[in-house]
Amino acid sequence: MEWILYGATGVTGRLITQTAVRRGHRPILAGRNAEALRRLAEPDGLTWRTADLDDEDAVGELVAAAPLTLLAASTFNTASLRLARACLAAGAHYLDLANEVPVLEAVYGLDDEARARGCHSASGCRFWHRSLRTRWPVTSWSSCQMRGSWI
Predict the structure, then answer these.
(1) C-beta separation of 5 from 72 below 8 A
(2) How far is the C-alpha of 24 from the C-alpha of 1, rounded, in Å?
(3) Is the pLDDT of residue 137 over 70?
(4) Is the pLDDT of residue 131 over 70?
(5) Range of 123's domain?
(6) Rounded Cα distance, 53 and 97, in Å
(7) Residue 147 has pLDDT above 70, yes or no
(8) How far apart are CA 124 and CA 129, in angstroms?
(9) pLDDT at position 151
(10) Is the pLDDT reported for residue 138 higher than 50?
């Protein structure tokens, strides 16, 4: 299954990309910086796309390209709800790594609409990688499962 990873060029995004490729996934890498996306995508032959989150048309076009979008960009306060709403409009699933309570509440506030559209929206998912060990509980072990594949 193809899926979109928005925020692919950040630290966590790069680790998610490496893990996904190692597990046989082919994520579409997305973000704002075309050159950084190209450099990250080329070695593994991955598709990449740019989209400015302030451009509703570009975001809508981006999330319509795959059945699932995972937001790893750390601008959750401004990005999560925009991407989640765009995913719902496109009939796509939405996940993010946010840990801010207002973001979690806002995304979970879309649950009824998501269910009505046959979509799943989840905020606060976690990605754990051995290199992310810190003294702060910023990341924890949990995984999200979509259609039988662990992401």
Answers:
(1) yes
(2) 10
(3) no
(4) no
(5) 4-150
(6) 17
(7) no
(8) 16
(9) 44
(10) no
In this structure, what CATH number is given to the domain that contains residue 137?
3.40.50.720
- Res 133 pLDDT > 60: no
- Asked whether the beta carbons of 98 and 35 are under 8 A apart, the reply is no
pTM: 0.84
Token couple for 101: 């309570």
SS3 category, 127:
coil
Number of Cβ atoms within 10 Å of the Cβ of 119: 21
Q: Where are the alpha helices (DSSP H) in the chain?
A: 11-22, 34-41, 56-63, 76-90, 101-108, 111-116
Q: How far apart are CA 57 and CA 100, in angstroms?
A: 26
Q: What is the mean pLDDT of residues 74-83?
A: 88
**How many CA atoms does the CB half-sphere of 24 hold within 13 Å?**
3
The total number of structural domains in the chain stands at 1
Which amino acid, one-letter code, is at 95? L
| Residue 123 · residue 137 · CB < 8 Å | no
According to DSSP, residue 67 is labeled S
Tell me the per-residue pLDDT of 29-76, one tens digit each, with 9 for 90 and over: 999 999 999 999 999 999 999 999 999 999 999 999 999 999 998 788
User: Alpha-carbon distance 65 to 89, whole Å?
Assistant: 13
Cβ burial, residue 121 (10 Å; 0-12/13-18/19+): buried
